[in-house]
């Protein structure tokens, strides 16, 4: 069985696909910085608005990174990874066609969602794909792709913006994502194993509200709106910590019940 499974896929080829997908995030992030003056000139945007071209992507990445990892555990890492490629590519294609600055920021937020889904599951896929003795090489190659994207992004982003326009950056990222989607069937089934665990939707909403309010509050910290958002972030943080403790207790009691057929005694309050 192991021999047949080993012939049905190539670990090196899958590593290349995951590495190419990992390259997209840092490359686009560093390349777009060189295109900000051109974007500002086309849409007549000021410096504060242009800052959101990067910030919208980062905000979405921070909000969805942990949920994407959790979703990969419960729904399958390959499924979420490939869904991230689709979302990222869709964001790139929409960015190419965007006619306004507001839509550009929305598209960047969509890209950030896809990027979080990719990044949260890429190293996990490599870890499951390679045995312990070979993981160092594989993860090292994947990390090299991150730094290659950060290094090549400014040079290629500047060249593409100068000769083909800033939208060409997103054309390149979309083209790089196409081979990963085309060979999606090459991923072996064992990489997409699912754990039957509950996805904490309420925790996702609370944590997202916390991050959003904190991010926007710090951005507008000198205004009354910023102070209000920071206060809301503090309240969300308190609610999130209480909800996490309650969810952990429910999860522990549920596991105990499944193993023993009875519930553990409740601990009296101090």
| Integer tally of domains | 2
DSSP, total strands: 0
Low-confidence stretches: 1-6
CATH architecture of the largest domain: Up-down Bundle
What is the secondary structure topology, with strand pairs?
Blueprint: H1 2-7, H2 11-43, H3 47-75, H4 77-97, H5 101-129, H6 132-164, H7 167-182, H8 201-219, H9 224-260
Helix pairs in contact: 2-3, 2-5, 2-6, 2-7, 3-4, 3-5, 3-8, 4-5, 4-7, 5-6, 8-9
Task: Write a short abstract of this structure.
This protein is mainly alpha-helical and about 270 residues long. Helix 2 (about 10-45) runs antiparallel to helix 3 (about 45-75), helix 3 runs antiparallel to helix 8 and helix 4 (about 75-95) packs antiparallel against helix 7. The protein has helices at about 1-5, 10-45, 45-75, 75-95, 100-130, 130-165, 165-180, 200-220, 225-260.
Question: What features would you describe in this structure?
Answer:
The chain has 270 residues and is an all-alpha fold. The chain has two domains: 9-199, Up-down Bundle (Growth Hormone, Chain: A); 200-260. The chain is 83% helix and 0% strand. It is built from nine helices and no strands. Helix 4 (77-97) runs antiparallel to helix 7.
């Amino acid at each position: 069985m192991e021999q047949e499974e080993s012939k049905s896929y190539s670990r090196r080829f899958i590593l290349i696909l995951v590495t190419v997908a990992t390259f997209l995030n840092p490359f686009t992030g560093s390349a777009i910085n060189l295109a900000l003056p051109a974007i500002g000139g086309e849409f007549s945007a000021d410096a504060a608005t242009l800052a959101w071209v990067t910030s919208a992507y980062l905000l979405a990445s921070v909000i969805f990174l942990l949920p994407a990892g959790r979703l990969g555990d419960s729904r399958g890492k390959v499924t979420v990874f490939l869904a991230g490629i689709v979302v990222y590519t869709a964001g790139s294609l929409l960015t190419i066609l965007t006619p306004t600055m507001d839509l550009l920021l929305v598209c960047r937020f969509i890209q950030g969602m896809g990027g979080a889904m990719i990044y949260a599951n890429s190293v996990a896929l490599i870890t499951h794909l390679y045995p312990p003795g070979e993981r160092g090489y594989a993860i090292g190659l994947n990390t090299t792709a991150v730094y290659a994207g950060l290094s090549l992004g400014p040079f290629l982003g500047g060249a593409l913006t100068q000769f083909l326009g800033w939208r060409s950056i997103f054309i390149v990222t979309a083209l790089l994502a196409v081979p990963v989607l085309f060979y999606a069937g090459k991923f072996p089934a064992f990489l997409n194993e699912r754990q039957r665990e509950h996805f904490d939707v309420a925790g996702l909403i609370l944590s997202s509200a916390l991050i959003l309010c904190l991010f926007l509050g710090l951005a507008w910290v000198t205004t009354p709106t910023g102070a209000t958002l920071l206060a809301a972030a503090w309240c969300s943080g308190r609610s999130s910590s209480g909800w996490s403790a309650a969810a952990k207790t429910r999860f522990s009691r549920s596991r105990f019940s499944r193993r023993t057929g009875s519930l553990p005694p409740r601990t009296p309050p101090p």
